[in-house]
Amino acid sequence: MEKRDELYAGKAKSVFTTDDPDKLVIVFRDDTSAFDGKKKQALDRKGAVNNQFNAAIMEKLQAAGVPTHFEKLLSNNECLVKRLEMIPVECVVRNVAAGSIVRRLGVEEGKELNPPTFEMFLKSDALGDPMINEYHVRSFGWATDQQIETMKALTFKVNDVLKKLFLDGNMLLVDYKLEFGLFHGEVVLGDEFSPDGCRLWDKDTREKMDKDRFRQDLGNVIEAYEEVGHRLGMTFQY
Ligand code: C5P
Question: Where is the SAICAR synthetase/ADE2 N-terminal domain (predicted)?
Fold first, then answer.
């Protein structure tokens, strides 16, 4: 497999084509961003930690029957994935109220949501990722009825697998965002799963162990990501 041209550079990852038209290389950079790119900083070790963390989680999800784009690790900060046609919708499950739902609905941070709630957002930095509903997704042709149902079912299946995994490490999976794409017509989990795209709290102290440490200037951002990994039995190469 040969890495070729840069296809695009996102806020934290860059994507390259390969000699196989069905495969891409993702490079996890140290760049960290929040608030639609308004706050930016390079954090030492972040690319390597997120790449290796994501690989371990994607493998767990794949083994549990969630189809993912992940193929294999290529280096400390690169992996090989299937090339998907991305659906421009972010799927969010919330087990506990935090972040935007607290501001939007005036609910208390930390309130357990039973059953967990599901939301969708249009992936658009220019518009600040507005919240959308299933009718928008259908009417604008971003996904079909069946694709929406599959994304929703897979997003909840990820919750079943990961809530338990993090709980075993004494952590609460508060919420997370997933992105899906199509691979030869099949809905497949894309993007990444790392502490950049979810909220994780220590179960006893409720200490934040995710990107909120960066958003809220709490410090020790990457140390917290590493601690999450270590609690799940991961080791990181730099
Ligand atoms: O900001 P909000 O509370 O809606 O985020 C819900 C979850 O989705 C959080 O875990 C957040 O880190 C993640 N998210 C993300 N990328 C976005 C928006 C939200 O990873 N563009």
Answer: 7-231
pLDDT digits (tens, 9 = 90+) for 188-209: 999 999 999 999 999 999 999 9
Question: Which of 89, 103, 123, 177 for mutating ligand 1's site (highest number of atoms within 8 Å of CB)?
Answer: 177
Q: CA angle 213-41-119, nearest 5°?
A: 55
CB of 129 shorter than 6 A to ligand 1: yes
CA separation for the pair 44, 48 (Å, rounded): 9
Residue 125 phi, psi dihedral angles, 5° rounding: -60, -40
- Please indicate whether residue 197, judged by its CB atom, sits closer than 6 Å to ligand 1: yes
As given in the structure block, the two tokens for residue 210 are: 């995710």
| Binding site membership of 116 for ligand 1 (Cβ less than 6 Å) | no
The four Cα atoms 123, 166, 72, 195 give a dihedral, to 10 degrees, of 40
ipTM for the assembly: 0.98
Q: How far is Cα 165 from Cα 222, in angstroms, rounded to an integer?
A: 20
Give yes or no for residue 176 CB within 6 A of ligand 1: yes
Token digits of residue 156: 């909840």
The Å distance, Cα 1 to ligand 1 centre, comes to: 33
Q: Which domains does the chain have, with CATH numbers?
A: 3-82 (3.30.200.20), 86-220 (3.30.470.20)
